[in-house]
Structure to design on (331 residues):
């Protein structure tokens, strides 16, 4: 995606990259050179590129994350998948090194008549098809660089009923960009029929910018174009508001202390029973979040860079600062 081209509608005019930078829009090269390379140590990348390692450090740091039912690391273990799943009728299988929602298989039930597994779409898959999917994960079909992978089996997330109608056949998640421990911008990603139930903007999911102060919707887009209602459910997107918002931001902020990475994307889900939980981390978060918020990242990042006492602040203090300085609406 050409992020600079997509963001031209911020000022309802065409602009050169220089003009976009003046408006505070961050491009790919700026992100890579000035923020990712500068603030993310390369030796820490495995902690976020491998979802199994992410889960382990989350548990070590008391960060809430979906329960790990089990993992499959080699082909020999595939035959034991039913033993690993046990009595779980709801679960999610994902590649440890996957990205963009690729390779994620969500099972919501098991048929009493056929014994097949039932996907969230209602489609049934056999035990053989389930094992074949795991084999494809191990072979690296969905992993970054096509390298051999590990299949994770996690407990299924039950999204909060407050989001009913905002997502199609999938769990909506909240992406929060965190810079040196400060949440700087956020959006919700809502799955659609076009995105096959996955919260992937490139595949057609809806992105909704979220006000850092209130958790309220700022602006919604699909394929970089503004929209007002969900394309599948007709739900009015401007009415969306994320509950437990301060807790969401504090969870996101704590991921800086947990991972040691200075510029990260934190993906958080809201379980109806367990509250906010960390889904995964991303050391190279995309820039489409600026489109969803109709705002650039650069002024916020530079404000934090200019601070002299930021490393002495607690999670709660960092969140309070971000809510005050980067919010769009007031309560």
């Amino acid at each position: 995606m050409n992020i600079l081209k997509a963001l031209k509608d911020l000022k309802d005019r065409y602009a050169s990259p220089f003009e976009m930078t003046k408006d505070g829009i961050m491009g790919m090269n700026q992100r890579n050179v000035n923020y990712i390379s500068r603030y993310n140590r390369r030796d820490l990348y495995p902690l976020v590129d491998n979802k199994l390692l992410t889960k382990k450090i989350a548990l070590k740091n008391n960060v809430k994350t979906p329960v790990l039912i089990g993992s499959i690391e080699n082909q020999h273990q595939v035959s034991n998948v039913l033993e690993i799943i046990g009595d779980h009728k709801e679960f999610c299988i994902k590649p440890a090194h996957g990205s963009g929602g690729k390779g994620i298989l969500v099972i919501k039930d098991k048929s009493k008549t056929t014994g097949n597994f039932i996907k969230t779409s209602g489609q049934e898959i056999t035990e053989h098809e389930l094992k074949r999917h795991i084999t494809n994960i191990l072979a690296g079909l969905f992993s970054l660089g096509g390298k051999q992978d590990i299949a994770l089996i996690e407990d299924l997330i039950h999204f909060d009923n407050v989001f009913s109608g905002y997502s199609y056949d999938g769990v909506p998640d909240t992406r929060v960009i965190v810079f040196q421990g400060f949440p700087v911008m956020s959006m919700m990603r809502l799955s659609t029929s076009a995105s096959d139930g996955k919260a992937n903007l490139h595949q057609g999911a809806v992105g909704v910018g979220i006000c850092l102060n209130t958790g309220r919707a700022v602006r919604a887009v699909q394929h970089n174009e503004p929209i007002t209602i969900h394309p599948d459910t007709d739900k009015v997107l401007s009415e969306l508001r994320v509950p437990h918002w301060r807790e969401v931001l504090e969870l996101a902020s704590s991921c800086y202390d947990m991972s040691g990475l200075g510029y990260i994307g934190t993906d958080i889900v809201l379980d109806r029973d367990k509250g906010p939980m960390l889904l995964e981390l991303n050391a190279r978060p995309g820039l489409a979040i600026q489109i969803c918020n109709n705002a650039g990242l650069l002024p916020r990042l530079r404000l934090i860079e200019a601070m002299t006492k930021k490393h002495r602040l607690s999670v709660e203090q960092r969140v309070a600062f971000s809510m005050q300085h980067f919010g769009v609406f007031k309560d």
About this structure: The CA atoms of residues 95 and 137 lie 6 Å apart. The chain has a mean pLDDT of 90. The longest helix spans residues 245-259.
